[in-house]
Specification:
single chain; about 375 residues; mainly alpha; two-stranded antiparallel ribbon; 2 strands; globular
Length: about 375
């Protein structure tokens, strides 16, 4: 993942559009959609089945990288208030979008209940509180305390983007300090089991912001490095092979021997077993190893040659509307599968149609952007391996 750029007089590298990054973001979005249509036959071949991490990790990591590329250069150039205001405005749009999706998700499953008379459908994505006590559930949803199933990543994204002005303020002074504070928060949350509260459902946020912010900040730090230098990462042959070995061990454990039992080492499970809610150390290392392995492989060079009109590139460029579209379509797919539509033919047809809808949305937004004069930003840029 590299950002096309040129060095400016101020020492900050000016940015162009990175088609490779957009392609990988599109890949993550497509994979998230497939996984969200739970139980479909294509879910078994997504990369979550071959290691410790999944597309959600890539989504958050890329979001941090993209945030640095989109905002931090202008922030450093003196537009601090304007950029902070723009970022907070985006956070507000994420918040309102999430609330709209909660209502839409409830409507989709309510339609299934009306059609079948099966009230048990509400339990599929934890909609019982919304149906049994709408007033309390809506208040809790507005406070981000109540998060139905599949509707828990946008609240995390809202927190990450909402806290971005603070991150940029610290990073403008010292990237190592920003990383140190973020890492300390991740470690404290993981070892201490500290999480944001949820209500009325127990268990805390599915994506604990205190933990997942570290992956976002790591991506942000790489993005800032790409702004200041000609590359985001350096190539080390021993490190690349170490990443390959770690990915191989993860594959062996997940597909072969199985994960070791809890307490297999005299250390907290947070440090020894892959776990999603608190982004445990093995899971964090896996997504970082995967990205490093790919970015310094021939696969990255191949992807870098893709056109900006490539379906995945367009999806990645318009990640938020594409993600929201995929979320509504995937929830609808889950509801259909729960009401009698099932089997490999349905799965493949529905997932393919859902991906086509997302590509169509991305293509429409790309065409609209070009008509408004944003076509140049979408052009691919030639960059060397980063």
């Amino acid at each position: 993942m590299g950002l096309g750029s040129q060095v400016t007089a101020g020492g900050v590298v000016g940015s162009g559009r990175d088609t490779a990054l957009d392609v990988w973001r599109g890949f993550a979005l497509a994979t998230i959609f497939i996984n969200h249509v739970s139980g479909n036959v294509l879910e078994a071949v997504t990369h979550k089945n071959f290691g410790f991490s999944d597309a959600a990790d890539l989504f958050v990591f890329f979001a941090g990288y993209a945030a640095a590329c989109a905002y931090f250069g202008k922030y450093l150039s003196g537009q601090r208030l304007a950029i902070s205001t723009k970022v907070l405005s985006r956070a507000v749009s994420l918040y309102t979008t999430h609330l709209a999706l909660v209502v839409l998700g409830g409507a989709v499953f309510s339609l299934g209940v009306i059609r079948t008379g099966d009230l048990g459908l509400f339990s599929v994505i934890a909609l019982e509180p919304l149906m049994m006590d709408p007033a309390e559930a809506l208040v809790s949803a507005a406070m981000l305390l109540y998060q139905p199933g599949f509707l828990n990543i946008l609240p995390l994204y809202f927190v990450l983007i909402g806290s971005l002005p603070l991150l940029m303020l610290v990073a403008a002074r010292s990237i190592p300090v920003a990383l140190g504070l973020s890492g300390a928060m991740w470690l404290l949350a993981g070892l201490g089991g500290i999480n944001f509260q949820t209500y009325p459902l127990p268990g805390g946020w599915f994506f604990n912001p205190l933990s997942w912010q570290f992956l976002f900040v790591l991506g942000f730090a790489l993005g800032t490095r790409r702004l200041r230098h000609s590359h985001a990462t350096w190539y080390s042959r021993p490190l690349w092979w170490a990443c390959a070995a770690y990915l191989a061990v993860a594959l062996l454990l997940v597909r072969g021997t199985g994960l070791p039992p809890s307490g297999w080492l005299p250390l907290p499970d947070f440090l020894t077993l892959p776990e999603k809610q608190f982004l445990s150390l093995p899971r964090l290392l896996h997504v970082l190893a995967l990205c490093y392995f790919v970015v310094h492989s021939p696969l990255q060079g191949w992807v870098r040659g893709f056109s900006a009109r490539n379906p995945l590139a367009m999806m990645g460029r318009h990640s938020l509307p594409v993600f929201c579209t995929g979320l509504v379509v995937s929830i609808s797919g889950v509801a259909l599968k729960e009401t009698g539509f099932d089997g490999a033919v349905f799965d493949i047809t529905y997932v393919s149609a859902g991906l086509a809808v997302q590509i169509a949305v991305a293509a429409l937004l790309t065409a609209t952007e070009k008509r408004r004069g944003g076509g140049n930003a979408a052009q691919p840029v030639a960059v060397r391996a980063s």
